[in-house]
Design goal:
The structure holds 2 protein chains of 2 kinds.
Chain A lengths: L51 E5 L8 E2 L6 E5 L3 E4 L12 E7 L3 E5 L12 E9 L6 E6 L9 E7 L4 E7 L5 E7 L8 E8 L4 E6 L2 E7 L12 E4 L9 E14 L12
Antiparallel strand pairs in A: 1-16, 2-3, 3-6, 4-5, 5-16, 6-15, 7-12, 7-16, 8-9, 8-15, 9-10, 10-11, 12-13, 13-14
Chain B lengths: L1 E7 L4 H11 L5 E11 L4 E9 L1 H15 L28
Antiparallel strand pairs in B: 1-3, 2-3
Classes of the chains: A mainly beta, B alpha+beta.
Chain lengths: ~270, ~100
C-alpha cells in the first residue's frame, strides 16, 4: 500500500469544477510531463486527493490488499500472483500489479457494506489499469458490490474480452437499475488498457479507454438515488459463480466522488 | 451506425433483472452502447442501443424478452424517453 509513481512530473491542474461538456463533463488544461504514464494521485502528484474515496495499488507482495485512503482491507481469495511487472514501458511508474488468473476463483473481497465504496447520490469516477491476459470470452470482473446476482443492488463492472465490451450495472436502493454495455469495437485480448468511468448524476455515464470516449448513456433514472454497496469485490464476482481461466493483472483501482480525477494513461487516460 | 429502442411494460421487479441481463447480451456489432433501464415506479424496462446491425439486435431482444416477460410484447411505438438515454454523444445517427 505504499505510495508510488511520478512525484516530479509537476502536474499543473486540479479538478476543474462544474461540468462543462468537454470530454464527458470535465476538461483538461495541461498535463505536466505525463504522457502515457501513471501519476499517482494525478493531478496532485504523490498524494491521495481529498476526493478519492478508495484506492488500491496492488503493490502488496502477498496476502490481502489495503486501500490507500482509509486502510480498507480486501481479503485474498484463491491464488493471485503478486509483484507483476508493468507491461513494457506503456505505463511508466505503474508497477507492480497483481495477476488473477482464474475468473471466479481469484480476487479480493469483503462481505457487507464498505462505506468507502458507496457512490451514494454523488458524481463519481472509477479508474482501473488493467492488463488482459485471458483468451476466453468470459466476463472479466473488475468490480462487484452487489447484494446478490439476483437482486443486484450495488454496482458491477465486467469486461468481455473477446468482443471488447465493458458492462456497467448500477442499481439504487429503491430498485431502479441501469445497465450499460459499451461496445469498444476492438478485442481486449492481450492488451493493456487504462479505463475511466465517469458518472455525472443528472447527466451521462461515459467510459474512456486509453483516453478515448467509448460513448455515453444517460443515467437520469438514478438522479438523487442512493447507490450503495452490499459487498466489496475486486477482480471477482461476489458469488464466484463461474470458474474458468483467466482474467488479468490489475495495477490500480480507484474511486473518486464529486471529482473527475485522472491518474493519467495513454492519450491522457 | 443505427439506433433502435424498445420498451416492455408491466414488468415485475423480479423479472426485470432477468430481462435486463438478457438484453445486455444482444449482439450489436461495431462500436456503440446498449442501454437498459428499469423504472420500478412505472414497472417498465427500456432498451436502447446504437451500433451496427441494430435491426437484427432488436429482433433478438424481442425474442429474449418473450422468454422472460410473457405477458406483454414490447412496445415499439412508444417513445423511449427515459433515455434520451443513448444520445447524440453516443456518436451514432438515429435511424430515420
Amino acid at each position: 500500500m505504499s505510495k508510488r509513481g511520478s512525484l516530479d512530473s509537476s502536474p499543473t491542474v486540479g479538478y476543474l469544477g462544474p461540468v462543462n461538456g468537454a470530454r464527458g463533463g470535465f476538461s483538461f488544461a495541461g498535463r505536466g510531463g505525463v504522457v502515457g504514464g501513471y501519476s499517482y494521485g494525478w493531478p496532485s502528484g504523490g498524494t491521495s486527493e481529498a476526493s478519492v474515496a478508495a484506492q488500491w495499488l496492488f503493490d502488496e507482495v502477498a496476502g490481502n490488499i489495503v486501500d490507500e485512503v482509509t486502510g480498507v482491507t480486501l481479503t485474498k481469495i484463491g491464488g493471485p500472483t503478486y509483484s507483476q511487472s508493468s507491461p513494457e514501458s506503456l505505463w511508466d511508474n505503474l508497477a507492480p500489479g497483481i495477476y488473477c488468473p482464474r475468473f471466479g476463483a481469484d480476487g479480493f473481497g469483503a462481505a457487507g457494506n464498505e462505506a468507502n465504496l458507496d457512490i451514494g447520490a454523488n458524481h463519481f469516477t472509477i479508474e482501473w489499469w488493467f492488463s488482459f491476459q485471458n483468451t476466453n470470452a468470459v466476463p472479466g470482473v473488475i468490480t462487484d458490490t452487489r447484494l446478490s446476482t439476483a437482486t443486484n443492488k450495488g454496482y458491477y463492472i465486467a469486461s468481455d474480452h473477446n468482443s471488447g465490451t465493458m458492462t456497467v450495472v448500477l442499481q439504487a436502493t429503491d430498485g431502479t437499475q441501469v445497465s450499460k454495455v459499451f461496445l469498444t469495437g476492438s478485442t481486449f485480448k492481450s492488451t493493456n488498457r487504462k479505463f475511466r468511468l465517469v458518472g455525472t448524476r443528472g447527466g451521462n455515464l461515459e467510459l474512456f479507454m486509453d483516453g478515448n470516449s467509448q460513448g455515453t448513456a444517460a443515467i437520469g433514472a438514478l438522479d438523487g438515488k442512493d447507490i450503495d454497496t452490499n459487498n466489496a469485490y475486486i477482480m471477482i464476482r461476489l458469488d464466484s459463480a463461474v470458474a474458468t481461466e483467466c482474467a488479468g493483472t490489475c495495477y490500480e483501482w480507484r474511486l473518486s466522488l464529486n471529482a473527475t480525477n485522472n491518474s493519467g494513461g495513454p492519450n491522457g487516460g | 451506425m443505427e439506433y433502435g429502442e424498445v420498451r416492455w411494460d408491466n414488468v415485475d421487479p423480479k423479472d426485470a433483472y432477468k430481462l435486463m441481463e438478457k438484453l445486455t447480451k444482444v449482439e450489436v456489432s461495431g462500436k456503440g452502447v446498449i442501454s437498459t433501464v428499469y423504472d420500478p415506479s412505472e414497472k417498465a424496462v427500456y432498451l436502447g442501443m446504437c451500433g451496427d446491425s441494430v435491426d437484427k439486435a432488436l429482433t433478438d431482444a424481442e425474442s429474449y424478452g418473450k422468454d422472460v416477460v410473457k405477458k406483454d410484447k414490447p412496445d415499439k411505438s412508444s417513445k423511449y424517453d427515459k433515455s434520451s438515454d443513448i444520445n447524440a454523444k453516443c456518436r451514432c445517427d438515429r435511424k430515420k
